[in-house]
Specification:
Blueprint lengths: L12 E7 L5 H11 L11 E7 L4 E4 L5 E4 L11 E4 L7 H4 L5 H7 L7 E4 L4 H6 L7 E2 L6 H7 L4 E2 L5 E3 L3 E4 L4 H14 L1 H11 L26 H8 L8 H7 L4 H12 L3 H19 L4 H7 L5 H12 L3 H7 L11
Parallel strand pairs: 1-2, 1-5, 5-6, 6-10, 7-8
Antiparallel strand pairs: 3-4, 9-10
Amino acid sequence: MASASGHPTGARHRVVVLAMDGVIPFEFGIPQRIFGRARNADGELLYEVVTASVRPPGPVRTDADFSILVENGPECLAGADTVVIPASYELGPVYEEGRLTEELSAALAHIEPGTRLISICTGGYVLAAAGYLDGRTATTHWSSAEHFQRLFPRITVDAEVLFIDDGDVLTSAGVAAGLDLCLHVVRSDHGSAVANDVARRTVVPPHRDGGQAQYIQRPVPEPQFATTTSARAWALARLHEPIQLRDMADQESMSVRTFTRRFREEVGISPGQWLAQQRVERARHLLESSDLSVDQVARDAGFGTPQSMRQHLQAALGVTPTAYRRTFREGVPAGPPR
């Protein structure tokens, strides 16, 4: 029996990372660190992560003072369920003119239809030059966003977010946003329990609030001495209670208007959007890890009614609470880092 990806049922999902000259080692290592550590409730690895070169097997230059030895050529891309393209500082005509080199075009030709595609940071230039992003919304490092948009006018560029999930094609913002995107993919594939376990072992948050907006360097930043950190911590401890914007602003001794502006500057979204996200995450955790009724989960997550929770989960995840619990009920046992 075969799975939707064409592999036998029970086979590990195959992730192939494309190594190009000038690859940035940090971003190049993210897929192995995240996908390579994801395990099911029985401790079995859920992904197989391999590396492919755009050329026959051999050394690939990085942007550091060392090269990496890649043992698979581009034909390895043909067997992928997911292809990840990390950033490179040697994209040449891809970055300068928006076109693929013959070598890169030949390598990408091995990718089979239906393969999930992921880019990290400016790796999105490769997907764009290959036409995979035409008519879609995508993101990249905020410092490259304007150039990316000019070079590829058929793409809608959103420089405010950490990543964009457009189904079979996913793009991330700069550098560490690749961690956010890969954890999101694990969460989408196998649930929050698996993704949270990987995040704990990697010592990163399983979900970062907001987007790139909080990291973009502004030409003339407004001096700020107060933050909204205490208000967020206060709200997280009281998600099961009704929380008004005025209540959060009071925690920082700010007016509602000032608090809302500061909150959006720091987090990238409004306080109301942030609260809804946190309640959805709380509901997901309870649906996966507890035997509480849907009514009780709705109350504990602060939605008040099952109907309200159903609407929010449907909007955020595309499924009902009952369907989500049925899909992601299994947990992952604790254990030493692996």
